Amino acid sequence: MVREGKKITGPEALREAASGSARIRGDTLGIIGLGRVGTAVALRAKVFGFNVVFYDPYLQDGVEKSLGITRVYTLQDLLFQSDCVTIHCNLNEHNHHLINDYTMKQMRPGAFLVNTSRGGLVDEQALAAALKDGRIRAAALDVHESEPFSFAASPLKDCPNVICTPHSAFYSDQSITELREMAAGEIRRAVVGRIPDNLRNCVNKEYFSNSTSAAEAVNGSRFPRYQLPPGPQHMATPGSVHSSTDSSHPSVAHSAHY
């Protein structure tokens, strides 16, 4: 009704508009991948009354006890138990199309699917078929197999029960500001040499030395300093960047902290 521009004018119209709405308290939310994001989702879902289960074969035992949630040890168990499945794992050669026609058939009839991790984890052709058949009640996707995302070219374009956003579901004015501040903060941590091992999402830690700070590498003080040849003072020529001071002047190392 809302999509068609109709107004809700009374209880009967409201009942018609809300027909099919599900109450989430008491339902089971299945989380695939319990990293930082998956854990944050689990804690928030508990507040809304979800029973939370998760599948993550890479985590040690006991994590579930600290969070007050339930662990399952196979993907099939999670799909069978969950009224809503949300994906929060990375994409690699072992889990491409983790959610496909076969695994969707293991989900509860009428379950919901949410993917905000990586588009390649879900077979969109199979998802479109499941949505049209009603096996999947609805889906919400912020990531897609083909990005930049074009809804017109997607196999999901004819599905009325899907919400698609182009990798931007996080957006708000505040989140954009925080995103830039966090990026700048991480750059500063790297430049001033604040424990490279603790940098978030650092993919090239091998270039950081424990004995030499990143700042020294950046400003050049870890490399041999240029020495002028012996002899009279050398005057700078136009456009030159060399100092006119002779080689007897003591060199000054840059500080590793600002």
Give me a quick take on this structure.
This protein has 258 residues and is of the alpha/beta class. 27% of the residues lie in helices and 12% in strands.
- pLDDT under 50 segments (min length 5)? 217-228, 233-258
Spatial strand arrangement across the major sheet: 3-2-1-4-5-6-7
Number of helices: 8
Subunit organisation of the chains = single chain
Indicate the structural class: alpha/beta
Rg calculated over all Cα atoms:
28 Å
Return the string of H and E elements.
HEHEHEHEHEHEEHH
Protein described:
There is one protein chain. The protein has 258 residues and is α/β, with parallel strands linked by helices. The protein is 27% helix and 12% strand. Strands 3-2-1-4-5-6-7 form a seven-stranded parallel sheet, sandwiched between helices. Residues 217-228 and 233-258 have low confidence and may be disordered.
